[in-house]
Amino acid sequence: MMTVSTFQLLDGKRCGEALRARIAQEAAAVKAARGRAPHLAAVLVGNDGASRTYVESKVKACESVGFRSTLIRLPESTSEDELLVRVKQMNRDKELDGYIVQLPVPAHIDPEKVTLAIAADKDVDGFHPENIGRMVLGQPCFLPATPSGIVELLRFNHIETAGKHAVVVGRSHIVGTPMSILLSRNAYPGNCTVTIAHSRTRDLPSITRQADILVVAAGRPEMITADMVKDGAVVVDVGIHRVPDTSRKSGFRLIGDVKFDEVAPKCAWITPVPGGVGPMTITSLLLNTLKAAQR
Question: What's this model's pTM, rounded to 2 decimal places?
Fold first, then answer.
């Protein structure tokens, strides 16, 4: 069997930097026109370490493109009603263009209730049913940040998608399902024939081996191995997991849902972890916030 000996990285850092340069220019124009910069807020409930790190990186990203950012920290004990009151206040805040409530929230809070309470025109995460419905219909909306970031990554690297067989592993409302919709739409990137695979899929390797474009968002460390990928595939790894590594100062390293060292030599293109999809998710959040400000 032929193996592709050289592969190219779908570099989310490089793509994100290019897009952020454009965002910064447009943000400056917004500020000049209306007297204030685009404003993004993030609500963090509790002390989840990964969520805290992620939210802080979003705040830094805002600063890098000239946005105003606000981080609202709420204690773990915050009740669902208290959070919903805060959400309603933010919906009415005319100085705020968009905001997110970082997930996961503590177990005593229903994330669906929170998502439904966020005003659709400030839902820069793209999770509100109105935005999801508009996406399905191909209407203007805020796209979910991670799938949108993947689309921009494919576009930036001029990956051919029309007529390709795309397999999406994972069917979450945040990544897998919207990813399948974006790849199948009549646009570029898009026009793929899409298969969604998940935990109930029988003989998963036989499905993933058919993929010209394989997007993996299953949340299982290194589940995709070399025997599951066809030669010359484009592989997008959405997963990110922290595993112990005593050889590193941090004591851990980051891996994805794809066994990178084993799979990469078979690929034409593959995302690294970290540095692939992650930076693009944050960049997409900035794009949505800019879009909200331009409205």
Answer: 0.93
